[in-house]
Amino acid sequence: MDSGGFFCNNKECRKSISGRAWATVCSHVVCHSCGSKTLDKIPTSCPACDTLLKKQFEVLNLDLDPSDEFKSMIVAGLRPETILEIAQRGMSFWTYQKYQDLLFNEATIQALTENNEILEKHYQDLIEKRERDLNGLKSQLENRVQDIERLQKRVSELTEILAEKARQHQKLQATNEDYRRKLEFTTLGNRLKTGDNPIATPASERRLQGSTMGSFRYDMTTNVTSKVSEAPPRTMRGNSVFQKPHTATGKKSSDLNATFDYGTFRK
Fold it and tell me: pTM here?
């Protein structure tokens, strides 16, 4: 049967009481397990409020579901006013227990409410922080997307510029090649027209050699060109590279070592 909705007043227990229980003069009730540990010997103290209990009837081990015989004999022979006083004190005990349960439940609810408010505030702050972080990440993502778009546009512009430079480079190479061929043909034609020595150096090579190698001497008898000491450059006029050798009187040209110098040729 139901014990009347009593709960163990021990704060560390608070379980529902059934069967036997321990009651104290200070209007507290504890379960049989908790009372057997602290209330089985006198003197002792109440496990709920620490009140000193030192008399015999200040602590009772009760049966919360008494038999009919017990109910018939517990107040047998007592005067009506005594029976009413006992009943009144029993009702006061029950009312106090319900009041204690109410206070305990209110305290529990208050603690849970405060804890819930703390948790709610904590998670609300956490949500706001996550939202700020998310907004910051979205802003960074938008900036990165804009940077990528700018870079892609710049790459496209540079690609077009590079392609245009490549076309101009190819065009310049083709033009340079045409000029080079025309110059070679013009030089070759001039040399053929003027009857230049076949072993003479082309004009372009003469300019390079004259600017870097100084004067050379060509020996017609041995067909050997040798470098001589540096001499001031002089400009030769005409298309012919070599001068005609002068033959001494009474001597054959084959007996002479005709020696010629040429210097730097400049336009």
Answer: 0.47
